[in-house]
UniProtKB/TrEMBL annotation:
It comes from Amycolatopsis acididurans. InterPro entries: ATPase_NBD (IPR043129), ROK (IPR000600). Pfam families: ROK. This is ROK family protein. SUPFAM superfamilies: Actin-like ATPase domain. Belongs to the ROK (NagC/XylR) family.
Length: 253
């Protein structure tokens, strides 16, 4: 019998969020729990918080966990907005040990890839055709690219160089807050970033997500690019939903 419930944890640069997920509806069951990301966000410190989140929900099934990092076969290859000691860490083994469960019960994914997978499954059907790029605007910028609904894992388009700068250093949602930018000012930076990206990969659709997607009406209408832009239907819960689905289905990259 196919599982109808799962559990996902989304590790971000500012917060670690977890929740039970209804895998038929692609929706959270009840409230999510959010705990500030520890500083420094070392593997051990983050694992402690993840264990606290799992314990809070008394969940004993498979756990899907996202990292703001390139993840290949459960090992973190990069570390964006988390401690650099993550690089080379076997995250699968770390979390399995900390949670006291088999490695096969832990699925590790890049955070944007997990969010994108959730949007492919539960979001706008238009996203499943052609080249779709999901971008999460938060502490940094995460990217996930799909061809007819199939993921090309571990793209890092948030680190594209735009006008001599790492894109996320200028256009992440955190930059808007840190520099006190208005939505209009910030949208101009996002527009510039998207225009460079669309000229490189020529997508058919951009999906924009992350925490700032909750205020999409304040900035998405200001964008003026060739490619159609839609807001992530699951907003900032997409990573949790995608992680939960990946864990149940044993998907890992």
């Amino acid at each position: 019998m196919t599982a109808t419930r799962g559990f996902g944890i989304d590790i971000g640069g500012s917060g670690i969020k977890g929740a039970l997920v209804d895998l038929e509806k692609g929706a959270l069951i009840g409230d999510r729990l959010r705990i500030d990301t520890p500083r420094p966000a070392t593997p051990e410190a983050v694992a402690d918080v993840v264990a606290e989140v799992v314990r809070h929900f008394a969940w004993d099934g498979p756990v899907g966990i996202t990292l703001p990092a390139v993840v290949k076969k459960g090992v973190a290859q990069t570390a964006a907005n988390i401690d650099p000691t993550w690089i080379g860490t076997d995250a699968d083994a770390l979390f399995a040990k900390r949670l006291g469960r088999p490695v096969d019960d832990v699925a590790m994914l890049n955070d944007a890839d997990a969010a994108g997978m959730a949007e492919m499954r539960f979001g706008d059907p238009l996203a499943r055709h052609g080249v779709t790029t999901l971008l999460t605007f938060g502490t940094g910028i995460g990217s996930a690219v799909f061809q007819d609904g199939k993921l090309v894992p571990n793209t890092e388009f948030g680190h594209l160089e735009v006008d001599g700068h790492d894109a996320e250093k200028k256009a992440a949602a955190s930059v808007k807050d840190n520099e006190g930018l208005s939505y209009h000012q910030w949208a101009k930076r996002v527009n510039r970033y998207l225009s460079v990206l669309e000229n490189l990969i020529w997508p058919d659709l951009f999906i924009v997500g992350g925490g700032v997607s909750k205020k999409s009406e304040k900035w998405v209408p200001l964008l003026d690019i060739r490619t159609k832009v839609v807001v992530a239907s699951l907003q900032n819960n997409a990573g949790i939903v995608g992680a939960a689905a990946a864990a149940v289905e044993g998907i890992e990259h």
